[in-house]
């Protein structure tokens, strides 16, 4: 099967800015220094799926872990790795996003990669905790084909780079639906000034949630797709990945992770019974050395009384990233001719009617 780039727009032409905080230069997760993002996209007939890779840094993550936390907003999901993230407070592999039935293949790819880099895993040191998130792209993708392989996961990892995040119908977002429109991968960032230093908080989302007609834009408009076959039952999912270079410890990151839900709620989501809504948050500051031999280590952390700035950034960046996932996606025809229109097309139509 060929791997192809997904169809996507330049979100600068359709941007719906959210909140009051300034955006980073690229308005994406990669505004946080050191983070890399890559995709592998599969489009072949009824196969419309893929893998998205997020690397907190380009080195050996098992050896140099990042402090992390997660938050389950609604737990109808099949993620891998959250239990250990919340017990030990670290991430030690890249994060892969994919469709629901491809979690095992992506997890295996991460484990094999970690073993190749660290032959002592499971022998003279601990085993490795792979981290994979998923959403169900079944309406637009033949999910039963289980088309994603370990090689596709490795391709996404190999494609990871630190430039602008490619968004829309690409990678894991290829077959996703959001508020009845075409969803996918979206990203946004906020620039923060703390103690005279510039920091960033970025969000990357995999969007596959929301009832058609429930979406609320920042200006109060409520778009609804024209497609009559779009179901109204909320059975979707969203994975929110938040990253920052602000020095935070695990407990603080768990608090920041919860605020991703505020960004989803601003859009009109109520996290339905059948929805898997999950946030993973990490900081690239204060890396954790797997081979640390000191009995006591010191770390720089944010003064808790300043954390509201991070809360606001998490909500605003999540909200804008979701909108970007829809704005960057063109009209899409998937499995069996199933159609999803683009939010950007709806906005174009509104502009035409206004003129």
TrEMBL record:
Could you tell me which InterPro entries the record lists for this protein? ArgJ-like_dom_sf, Peptidase_S58_DmpA
What span is annotated as the signal peptide, if there is one? none
Q: Name one Pfam family in it.
A: Peptidase_S58
Protein family according to the UniProt entry: Belongs to the peptidase S58 family.
- Alphabetical list of PANTHER family matching this protein: BLR5678 PROTEIN, D-AMINOPEPTIDASE
- The name this protein goes by in its record: P1 family peptidase
Q: Which organism is it from?
A: Paracoccus aerius
Classification from the root reads: Bacteria, Pseudomonadati, Pseudomonadota, Alphaproteobacteria, Rhodobacterales
């Amino acid at each position: 099967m060929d791997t192809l780039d997904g169809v996507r727009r330049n979100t600068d032409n359709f941007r719906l800015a959210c909140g009051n905080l300034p955006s980073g230069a690229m308005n994406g997760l990669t505004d946080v220094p050191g983070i890399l993002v890559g995709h592998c996209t599969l489009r072949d007939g009824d196969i419309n799926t893929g893998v998205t890779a997020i690397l907190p840094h380009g080195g050996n993550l098992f050896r140099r872990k990042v402090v992390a936390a997660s938050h389950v907003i609604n737990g109808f999901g099949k993620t891998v790795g959250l239990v250990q993230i919340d017990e030990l407070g670290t991430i030690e592999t890249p994060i892969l996003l994919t469709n629901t039935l491809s979690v095992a293949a992506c997890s295996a790819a991460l484990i094999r990669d970690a073993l190749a880099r660290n032959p002592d895993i499971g022998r003279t040191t601990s085993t490795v905790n792979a981290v994979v998130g998923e959403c169900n792209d079944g309406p637009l993708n033949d999910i039963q084909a289980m088309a994603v392989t370990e090689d596709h996961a490795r391709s996404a990892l190999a494609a990871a780079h630190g430039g602008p995040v490619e968004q829309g119908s690409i990678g894991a977002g290829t077959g996703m639906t959001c508020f009845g429109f075409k969803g996918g991968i979206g990203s946004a960032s906020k620039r923060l000034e703390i103690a005279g230093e510039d920091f960033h908080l970025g969000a990357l989302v995999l969007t596959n949630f929301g009832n058609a007609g429930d979406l609320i834009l920042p200006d109060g408009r409520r778009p609804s797709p024209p497609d009559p076959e779009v179901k109204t039952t909320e059975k979707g999912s969203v994975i929110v990945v938040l990253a920052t270079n602000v020095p935070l410890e695990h407990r603080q990151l768990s608090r920041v992770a919860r605020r991703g839900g505020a960004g989803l709620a601003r859009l009109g989501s109520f996290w339905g019974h059948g929805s898997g809504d999950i946030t993973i948050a990490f900081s690239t500051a204060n890396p954790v050395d797997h081979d640390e031999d000191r009995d006591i280590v010191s770390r720089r952390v944010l003064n808790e009384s300043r954390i509201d700035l991070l809360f606001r950034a998490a909500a605003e960046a999540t909200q804008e990233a979701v909108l970007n996932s829809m704005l960057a996606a063109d009209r899409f025809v998937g499995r069996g001719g199933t159609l999803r229109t683009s939010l950007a097309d709806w906005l174009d139509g509104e502009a035409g009617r206004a003129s």
